[in-house]
Amino acid sequence: MSALVKGCTNHGVLFGFLCRRRHLDSHSTAGSTGGSMLHHKGVELATFPRYMSNATVGFVGLGNMGSHMARNLLKKGHPVVAYDAVPQNVLALKADGASVVGSPKEVASQTSILVTMLPASSHVLDVYTGSSGILRSVQKGSLLIDSSTIDPSVAQQIAQESKASCATFVDAPVSGGVNAARDSLLTFMVGAEKEEDFVRVKEILNKMGKNVVHCGPVGTGQAAKICNNMLLGISMIGTAEAMNLGIKLGLDPKLLAKILNMSSGRCWSSEVYNPVPGVVEGVPSGNNYKGGFGSALMAKDLGLAQNAATLIKAPTPLGSLSHQIYRIMVNSGYAEKDFSSAFKFLQDQAAEKKEC
């Protein structure tokens, strides 16, 4: 039997689900009411309404990542109501078929499923709780998905405020980069309080990504993401140093990358997103480090990791050093360049010493 439970309860918002325990593997069977009966990790969930498969989705934040994510929702049959603070970004998505509005508040008033993809904690707080924010007009039972990378405590704060407005908030930061966003190959790290919340959000995230992982309650998605990005920042600097050293020792960059990628030094930064121009096609290093994931954003994420490490007294010496290097890059004109410009930064540093 299908059920739709609206409004707030002491246990949060239930929207489209009734649960009972079953020892069944994850699968889906046809329901009698025009939906699908979902089973996930032993939990049988009541009929999942088919309208979710083509529901209108609100999207706030149409930068390098968000624009591709919203475009993929359009391609998968979801009407999209969009907003971005940069008019050009909105117009580009409008040309692809999205409806556009003038504020996050207007997005929330027209949709009950919203995705946000924003640069930092301050932007997320403003978009959700500001005078023109989502929570000013959010509909009861709405599902709010934030794919920004922010402080876990901010995600938890917004979750509490969303719950007070009878809406469900989950944090779902992403990994994979701009090309993965374009090709629907992102990995989503989801912090959701309840299993049924995760099942709901997975239905939407699968339209934009390849892997959707439930990390635990709200905030744990952010925890996983800042750990991932700390490692990414460290590995990119290491790759840039190794490539720069090898080239100066007379090795051809493509040959060196080939050797690294068949050896123990292999990593995502060397194989998929190599920082040396011409080694890998279609990445920012081949486009003067334009587009991609900006060095300022990497510095921000490394700062989040350092804040968390300080709070819980976890030693992260390489994370700390990487944070300092990216901060220097930001202050040296690399803020808007992709974070793989660490290679160019090293070359420029050597050139400056030579001039001296």
Overview of this protein structure:
With 356 residues, the protein is of the alpha/beta class. Helices cover 44% and strands 16% of the residues. It contains 13 helices and 13 strands. The protein has helices at 66-75, 87-95, 104-110, 121-129, 152-164, 177-182, 195-205, 220-248, 253-261, 268-271, 295-312, 317-334, 342-355, and strands at 19-21, 27-30, 35-40, 43-49, 57-60, 80-83, 99-100, 113-116, 143-146, 168-171, 174-175, 186-191, 209-216. The strands form three sheets. The chain has a six-stranded parallel beta sheet, with helices on both faces. A hairpin with a 2-residue loop joins strand 3 (35-40) and strand 4 (43-49). It is globular, with a radius of gyration of 22 Å. The chain starts with 18 loop residues before the first strand and ends with a helix.
- Termini separation (Å)? 77 Å
What is the helix content? 40-55%
Shape: globular
Sequence stretches where pLDDT stays below 50 over 5 or more residues: 1-7, 9-40, 42-51
Q: Give me the count of strands.
A: 13
The largest β sheet comes out as: 6 strands, parallel
Q: Output mean pLDDT.
A: 88
Instruction: Please count the helical segments.
Output: 13
The proportion of residues in beta strands is 15-25%
SSE order, one letter for each helix or strand:
EEEEEHEHEHEHEHEEHEHEHHHHHH
Provide a compact summary of the structure.
This protein has helices at 66-75, 87-95, 104-110, 121-129, 152-164, 177-182, 195-205, 220-248, 253-261, 268-271, 295-312, 317-334, 342-355, and strands at 19-21, 27-30, 35-40, 43-49, 57-60, 80-83, 99-100, 113-116, 143-146, 168-171, 174-175, 186-191, 209-216. With 356 residues, it is an alpha/beta fold.
